């Protein structure tokens, strides 16, 4: 073929590439129904607060640092996967609402990461500085969850065990808390606590931390306050999104060791 003077080789190749791409696109859309096409081409919006991280393809983990291979998008990874993970649930008759996970830093999504701690499988590690809870697994990995922790002056640290676990627990604020906040007297231990429910501060699950046979009064528990994940706001306990605490509860055995650092 002889190219005309008005059509350079570069222009010819570019036009050829466009033709091939158009044919390929036509082939894809012809086998795709309308609903699927709309779902896969739905627009996303940048969230600058979540930008500046890259994803580890081995574990799907969002890590600090520059984004490789293009502009940072700030988009949550595997959107459909996390929409299902943090979607609405009915649990023991209680309606757990969906979590707007797009508004949470993607680092705090539940995800599998490498085990770098050297603790034995079944151990729970709470990193209060990074706001992560890790459950060590037997395959060399750890399941990581984002958490909210106690305000400075209320936080607890050390080694203990999960002495017992409770689904949809009653909340019984300790007497010291009631003394600081008299409005909680109606939920005191003497008055039987607050009944289970979606507004209960312990959420869908609670795991009670003991040390040397004594109740530390600190818990791993659920919370509907997803905005608190990644922050230090609660009165000493380690809180998780309700969907995450249910997942953790099912993985943790009674008597599991826990290390809070």
UniProtKB/TrEMBL annotation:
Keywords: Cell shape, Cell wall biogenesis/degradation, Glycosyltransferase, Hydrolase, Lipoprotein, Peptidoglycan synthesis, Signal, Transferase. Residues 1-21 form the signal peptide. SUPFAM superfamilies: L,D-transpeptidase catalytic domain-like. One of its GO terms (cellular component) is extracellular region. It comes from the Bacteria. Belongs to the YkuD family. PANTHER family: L,D-TRANSPEPTIDASE, L,D-TRANSPEPTIDASE ERFK_SRFK-RELATED. This is Lipoprotein-anchoring transpeptidase ErfK/SrfK. It comes from Rhizobium giardinii.
């Amino acid at each position: 073929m002889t190219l005309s003077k008005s059509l350079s080789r570069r222009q010819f190749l570019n036009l050829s590439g466009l033709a091939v791409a158009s044919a390929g696109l036509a082939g894809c859309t012809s086998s795709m129904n309308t609903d699927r096409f709309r779902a896969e081409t739905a627009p996303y919006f940048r969230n600058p607060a979540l930008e500046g991280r890259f994803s580890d393809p081995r574990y799907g983990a969002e890590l600090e640092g520059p984004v490789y291979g293009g502009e940072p998008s700030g988009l949550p990874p595997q959107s459909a996967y996390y929409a299902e993970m943090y979607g609405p649930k009915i649990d023991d008759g209680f309606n757990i609402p969906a979590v707007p996970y797009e508004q949470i830093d993607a680092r705090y999504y539940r995800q599998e990461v490498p085990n770098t701690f050297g603790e034995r499988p079944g151990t729970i590690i709470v990193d209060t500085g990074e706001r992560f809870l890790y459950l060590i697994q037997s395959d060399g990995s750890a399941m990581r969850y984002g958490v909210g922790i106690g305000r400075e002056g209320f936080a607890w640290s050390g080694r203990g065990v999960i002495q017992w676990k409770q689904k949809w627990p009653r909340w019984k604020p300790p007497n010291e808390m009631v003394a600081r906040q008299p409005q909680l007297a109606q939920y005191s231990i003497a008055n039987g606590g607050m009944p289970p429910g979606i507004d209960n501060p312990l959420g869908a699950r609670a795991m009670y931390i003991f040390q040397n046979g004594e109740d530390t009064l600190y818990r791993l528990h659920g919370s509907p306050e997803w905005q608190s994940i990644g922050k230090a706001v609660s009165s000493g306990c380690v809180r998780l999104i309700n969907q995450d605490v249910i997942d953790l509860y099912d993985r943790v055995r009674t008597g599991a060791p826990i290390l809070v650092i």
